[in-house]
Amino acid sequence: MSDLEKVSFEHLPANRPMDETDMSLRFHFTEMSDDKLASYDPVLTDRELVEWDGNFREDGNLMLVCVERDVGIAEYRRVLEEHIVFRQQPGE
Question: What residue segments make up the domains of the chain, in order of their start?
């Protein structure tokens, strides 16, 4: 994923206001390898998803720095699946 594509995804969807947490979460996914993303399975349990990512805190929220709010499993899944679709688009 090119730097330009990373910046593009960090600001999608464009029709919704975003805070620093939204952008940090999206950046988290841009740093994942294609192989890592290909190993994602939507039927993973919450516990399996936490293990798959490896960056969740004991309280069940994703460990991100300099964020305004916590990111839980539901938001994580939604944005991850958006990111996978974005990465699979031709030319991405």
Answer: 3-88
